[in-house]
Amino acid sequence: MSHRTYRHTIPGIDMEELSGLLIVVEGPDSSGRSTQIWLLSRWLEQLGFAVEQMGLKRSKLVANELEQAKNGNVMSPRTMALFYATDFYDQLENRILPALRAGSVVLADRYIYTLMARDMVRGAPFEWLEPLYSMAVVPDAVYLLDTSAENILDRTLSSRGELDYWESGMDLGLARDWYRSFMVYQEAMRGQFEPLMSRFSIDRVDGDRSILDIHEDLKSRIDRILTGYANPRQD
Fold it and tell me: What's the CATH code of the domain at 92?
């Protein structure tokens, strides 16, 4: 199975050598993404696949600095966009590409689409973002856990007890009240994802269901992708 990038080639990389699978699960915070990634990882490993996980803010190069900048609540939209782009490309080079070359299944707990949606909500034009991520590897499948803002709010308060400054869009001045700002921001993010879904072939998954129902749905979809894929561990 060969891969391609969205536009520009990656220097020094032979895409024909990337025999693994790249599967992305998108969705807002508290949509259940991380839980689904964990369940899918266990399932795939039980089937004999080697699995590598990646997600936002996991780059050894800038993850700590990015977290510190976010804690200060002072980043400009452009600075935040470039911080996350650096985080992504560092993981692409050091985690995603080596795993795909080894024939592993890469499970991405969000990818460039969340980054684009966040940046567009904050005023970045798509024409600026598209070339920024032009060397991203095109996934074999992308699933969006489409979850209502009400459910996201309830789950966030149940698990954390408080709202996040950035995930509430407080930097945008949407509302003085955190809860109102959170709801407006989540709906704005949802709106930005709509055009991305058709442009990047993102499949919608009902995220308002139970954990088990979502997991079985994702397993069924991914199982169709696995058909015909050569699992190196079973050769």
Answer: 3.40.50.300
